[in-house]
Amino acid sequence: MDKILIPLLDNDIAPRFDMATDVLIVSVTRGTEAADKVDKKVIVLDHASPEAMCRLAINENIQTIICAGIEDEYHNYLQWKGAKILDDICGPVDDVLKSYLAETLSRGECFYPRAFD
Q: What is the DSSP annotation of 14-44?
């Protein structure tokens, strides 16, 4: 099972890891059939705190963190604790999660439509 932590701002990836109070935790069980089993839960923190977010990630045994901005201190700490960090990602959480599940998500992706193409 893969556990993913995504800081939220409404239905989007929060702009900063340390300023989010809503957190989506996704548990993915990869199936041998066409579909994976995906369970989601939202946790609301009392206040925005990078320490509380790191503690939550460790207590929930998170393997992957998907976020936009994250300070080097927390990025390095969470990597040291064994989490994979996919940062510099922005957009609606459903689109980001869909890309992650398809194993096509990479650092630096933006899922908002471009105004001018």
A: -SBGGG--EEEEEEEE--SSS--EEEEEEEE
Find all residues with CB under 8 Å of 113, minimum gap 6, and list them: none
Residue 13 tokens, joined: 């990836």
- Tell me which H or E stretch contains 50: helix 50-59
- What gap in Å lies between CA 28 and CA 44, rounded to an integer? 21
Lowest-pLDDT range of 30-34, 57-61, 96-100:
30-34
Q: Which residue has the tokens 């932590």?
A: 5
Percent of the chain past pLDDT 70, that is, above it, reads 94
Nearest residue to 40 via CA among 88, 92, 2? 2
Q: Are 12 and 66 in contact (CB under 8 A)?
A: no
| CATH class belonging to 2-101 | alpha beta
**Per-domain boundaries in the chain:** 2-101
Residue bearing tokens 């369970």: 39
